[in-house]
Amino acid sequence: MKVTDYFDGSGTRISFELLPPLRGSSIESVYSTIDRLKEFNPSCINITYHREESVKSKLPDGTIHKRVLKKRPGTVGLASAIHHKYGIDVVPHIICGGFSKQETEDALIDLDFLGIHNLLVLRGDGEKGTGTFRPHKDGHSYAVDLVRQIMDMNRGVYIEPYYSVPGATNFSVGVAGYPEKHYEAPSFESDLGYLKMKVDAGAEYIVTQMFFDNRVFFDFVRHCRDIGIEVPVIPGIKPVAIKKHLEILPEIFGVGIPDELSGEINRCKTDSEVYQAGIDWAVSQSAELKKSGVPAIHYYTMSRPDNIVEIVRRVF
Q: Residues 272-315: pLDDT tens digits?
């Protein structure tokens, strides 16, 4: 079933985003998280994809050894396991960073064979440590080009032209939107223009970056409609969980923290008070968004579901 089929006007749906386990960790940790979340009948579960990063280690002789690896591999296998164990629609993330066009095509063929036809398409983060995005030498630099490759496959067009009877895939694609603009974009207007290019290329819905002021989201949707973006826009919610989030989240994700929220967090005396204040704020956000009639609310769990469970129970 396509994710967009759930946006039928019958009410606000729920989706969750999970991280793949660290390399060498058990899939049981993911199952344990889903067991906590499945009671809410999510429309889908998103599985993030992570590019490779450089890891340095000190050898016995004192020299530094540098190697490149993916700390959280397994997105395709994990998506298939969840889909077949729980019968929940799964949305693996597909990213530009670290992948050639051929590797992307191969991964998409695997997903097609596995019966997974929903994707969230992203450029992906910059390299760990530098924050600078460098595409694979044979890969894509921008998410819109990745969307176009997937749409080509939906028309039976593959990288190599010599297949006599190519089979067409049937992928449904969502993309990311940034209510406060992507931190690399020179302006909000230019960022919105890039988003429209992704929609015009074939994206069927938008999932937003986290935000903490609903007015920012409502303004973003209005701006989208003003330039002709008519696809569903799904708000992304992440609760503040620790006091340091007041610094980390704006720095890493380029999001603003309203004065009212930062004031509440700074008045907290204990970590548990911060945790609860973050839940209360996300409950208020979610309730207002639900009342406004958004098609769904997407919760960034970071694979730590306790606060998300309380939020969803209180709102839905």
A: 999 999 999 999 999 999 999 999 999 999 889 999 999 999 99
Helical (H) or strand (E) element with 258: none
Please state the domain count of the chain.
1
Other CB atoms within a 10 A radius of the CB of residue 147 amount to: 25
Q: 179 CB contacts (<8 Å, ≥6 apart)? A: 208, 209, 211, 216, 217, 219, 220
Look up tokens 């890891």; give the residue. 55
Q: Which domain holds residue 81?
A: 3-239+297-303
**Is residue 231 a part of any domain in this protein?**
yes
Amino acid present at 294: V
270 belongs to a structural domain: no
The two three-digit tokens of residue 223, written as one number = 């701006």
- CATH for 26: 3.20.20.220
* 268 occurs within a structural domain: no
pLDDT in tens, 147-197: 999 999 999 999 987 666 678 999 999 999 999 999 899 999 999 999 999
The DSSP-derived string for 162-195 is T-SSPPP---EEEEEE-TT--TT-S-HHHHHHHH
Q: Is the entire prediction scored with pTM above 0.90?
A: yes
Contact 235, 282 (CB under 8 A): no
